[in-house]
UniProtKB/TrEMBL annotation:
Belongs to the cytochrome P450 family. The keyword Heme applies. This is Cytochrome P450. GO terms for molecular function: heme binding; iron ion binding; monooxygenase activity; oxidoreductase activity, acting on paired donors, with incorporation or reduction of molecular oxygen. It comes from Sphingopyxis terrae subsp. ummariensis. It comes from the Bacteria. SUPFAM superfamilies: Cytochrome P450.
Length: 418
């Protein structure tokens, strides 16, 4: 992810929805609603990350995602976040780290096909009983009637356990995965040379740890873990060190942040809409739990945007897009597009079309691990129902300071029985 950070513009554009403070302070909903109503394809001519197009409604995002030859994800052009500026704009303290989500076909296709079977239906069924067991154990370890941090004690713990299992990473060292994810998924960590050097040091620390695991698996491969699967693949067995690190960042950040922040949104969102929480408390039908899972993911949208780069001059619904223009696809906004999701700012656990959300993307880059995230969140909802446990939020969340990962750092809660 090559990133060229600029000085903040002197005059703040209220429709520059890439500003970190807007997400940290949870103020993004109104400007996104304004963009959807007045200018769903909007050119922001100045921002911290340079000029970019904002696409904020559902159908244009689907259209763009369906045309990967025209709207590229390639790391060479800047990759998948609005921060990237391509390999020609690398700064001191930065190296490119290609990952398959930031590649175009055919390279993307070959690498995605390598890891996709690890997240297929049969693997999800194999994981189901263990996921329910681990969810039960974590819930049973939490205090009733005492304040604790839901993010730390539940969301991080459950997602980090799953990541360690997927990689066959040393279980006792699994919290390193959280630290690496937090640091390497932060698009606000490129501002100074010191920040870039610190980020690079963390990336190399992660790479060294996984290189040891890679070497062990080369001697004694496993059956289901991601490292063994990569090793046995023509597309990924001979990756460069930078590409190896890039794909690790993708799988760790993707597997960690999506599920972690959906689990936190389960607690925070249902606290905001107690009438919807009451539906889940009164009706333990597994189908309702599954639908609520999709609705919570829609409402939260754990990755607020993905970015594409135009490979040629083109027209987009009447707008002239120039070659190499950045295009930010605001999934968080499209998931509240009133033409698709009426009353989209609310959680409605029995919403009929909750499954249509774009939180996992659309087209060839749709999240490869979506089923794992769905399994984990559904397990949490059903196990909370089985225990007749309710989460009460007792303080405002501390949110991530960025426009990419849309999530929570801390969330104080108290559990009670109902």
């Amino acid at each position: 992810m090559a990133t060229q950070i600029r000085v903040e513009p002197e005059t703040v554009n209220p429709l520059d929805v890439s500003r970190a403070d807007m997400w940290r302070e949870d103020r993004w909903q109104q400007p996104m609603a304004q963009l959807r109503a007045e200018s769903p394809i909007y050119y922001c001519d100045d921002s911290k990350f340079g000029p970019y197009w904002s696409v904020t409604t559902y159908k244009p995002i689907q259209h763009i995602e369906a045309l990967p030859k025209i709207f590229s994800s390639s790391w060479e052009y800047g990759g998948i976040t609005v921060a990237g500026d391509g390999i020609e704009h690398l700064q001191e303290g930065e190296i490119p780290m290609p990952m398959f989500i930031a590649m175009d076909p055919p390279q993307h296709t070959a690498q995605r096909r390598t890891v996709a079977p690890a997240f297929g239906p049969s693997e999800i069924e194999r994981m189901r009983a263990d996921t329910l067991r681990r969810t039960s154990e974590v819930l049973d370890s939490l205090p009733i009637g005492e304040t604790f941090d839901w993010v730390e004690k539940l969301s991080i713990e459950l997602t980090t356990q799953m990541l360690a299992i997927l990689f066959d990473f040393p279980f006792e060292e699994r919290h390193k995965l959280t630290a690496w994810s937090d640091a390497l998924g932060d698009i606000e960590s490129f501002n100074t040379l010191e920040e870039r050097q610190a980020r690079l040091a963390i990336a190399f620390e992660m790479g060294a740890a996984f290189k040891e695991l890679w070497d062990r698996k080369a001697q004694n491969p496993g059956t289901h873990d991601l490292i063994s699967i990569m090793l046995q693949s023509d597309a990924m067995s001979h990756m460069s060190h930078e590409e190896f690190m890039g794909n690790l960042i993708l799988l760790i950040v993707g597997g960690n942040d999506t599920t972690r922040n959906s689990m936190s949104a389960y607690a925070y969102g249902l606290h905001l809409f107690p009438e919807e929480r009451a539906k889940l408390e009164a009706n333990h039908d597994p189908e309702l739990a599954v639908n609520a899972m999709h609705e919570i993911i829609r409402w939260q949208t754990p990755l607020a945007h993905m970015r594409r780069t135009a490979t040629e001059d083109t027209e987009l619904f009447g707008h002239q897009i120039k070659k190499r223009d950045k295009i930010a696809l605001w999934y968080a906004s499209a998931n509240r597009d009133e033409s698709i999701f009426p009353d989209g700012d609310r959680i409605i656990v029995d919403r009929e079309n909750a499954r249509r959300h774009l939180a996992f993307g659309y087209g060839i880059h749709r999240c490869v691990g979506a089923r794992v995230a769905e399994l984990q969140l559904t397990a949490l909802i059903s196990e909370m129902q089985r225990r007749r446990l309710r989460v009460n939020v007792v303080g405002e969340p501390d949110r991530v300071n960025a426009c990419f990962v849309h999530g929570y750092r801390h969330l104080p809660v108290v559990l009670e029985k109902y």
